[in-house]
């Protein structure tokens, strides 16, 4: 709709109703069910989490699109770790401006079952370590690989580490997640759903540490950055998203909120799940809310020392429990 053609009073009413609807959806999403997901003796290992975070951030060069050798070295590290645990591990290679970039994929579970994608990008924006953005997401994939080994799974689970999520390739067909989602669509692969793991390591308990794309939301959720957020479409999310979110919240590993809003709300599609949405696959994002909380976003100050690895491991545990208990 073109807002220029709406009279001021009607425009205000339209925006007010829109905010009311969005807020109502948020409130419904935060209602907890009276059930729990069974726990597991397999949990994320804090020492391994720190090891992977260090390996990803303490590199000779920054892992951005200009440093192709460094990106390849990181891809090799991911591949080596994946291959230790996965049923099969491969590179998905493609060319951009004459250079070869690589997604890294490892798989678990029945080969012909419906597929679940858990993805995270390993490149950074510019010259910075990118500890939260997105070494935390990739570390989650590496730990999930270890935790999923030997599990009896109902679905095939593909863990995918993407390249080229960051500018200048964000929202282009050169994104690693676009390449992967298009492959799934072109080959008519039966996908149950996708979860993008995008910044899961920054938590703060201080008041004023959390902001929102719509300020009124602070009345509902408070202003402490001490929760993880599950971001989904406002309508048509599908059974995978509902089941995953239900399992995640009911695992009671970490304080969790659900965030659903139209695409015009800033941050809703700022990660790899946007490409799965574009190809009509059910998808959601798991995030600490990025720049709405972490002011180190896309800055040299996004370093390992700023992360809360204890709470980050709880996020990984919740993802694992969500996967193994999916209906």
Task: Summarize, please.
By secondary structure, the protein is α/β, with parallel strands linked by helices.
Tell me the structural class.
alpha/beta
Largest sheet: 8 strands, mixed
Count of runs of 4 or more consecutive helical residues: 9
Helix content: 25-40%
Secondary-structure element order, N to C: HHHEEEHEHEHEHEHEH
Strand content: 15-25%
Which radius of gyration do the C-alpha atoms yield?
A: 19 Å
Q: Mean pLDDT, nearest integer?
A: 90
List low-pLDDT spans.
1-34
- Biggest sheet strand order reads 1-2-4-3-5-8-6-7
**DSSP strand tally:** 8
Termini gap: 38 Å
Q: What spatial form do the alpha-carbon principal axes imply?
A: globular
List the helices and strands and how they pair.
Layout: H1 8-29, H2 46-57, H3 68-85, E1 88-96, E2 99-108, E3 115-121, H4 131-148, E4 156-162, H5 176-186, E5 191-197, H6 217-221, E6 228-232, H7 239-250, E7 256-260, H8 273-278, E8 283-287, H9 309-324
Helix pairs in contact: 2-4, 3-4, 4-9, 7-9
Task: Walk me through this protein's architecture.
The protein has helices spanning 8-29, 46-57, 68-85, 131-148, 176-186, 217-221, 239-250, 273-278, 309-324, and strands spanning 88-96, 99-108, 115-121, 156-162, 191-197, 228-232, 256-260, 283-287. The protein is an alpha/beta fold and 327 residues long. The protein has an eight-stranded mixed beta sheet with strand order 1-2-4-3-5-8-6-7, with helices on both faces. Helix 2 (46-57) packs across helix 4 and helix 4 (131-148) packs across helix 9 (309-324).
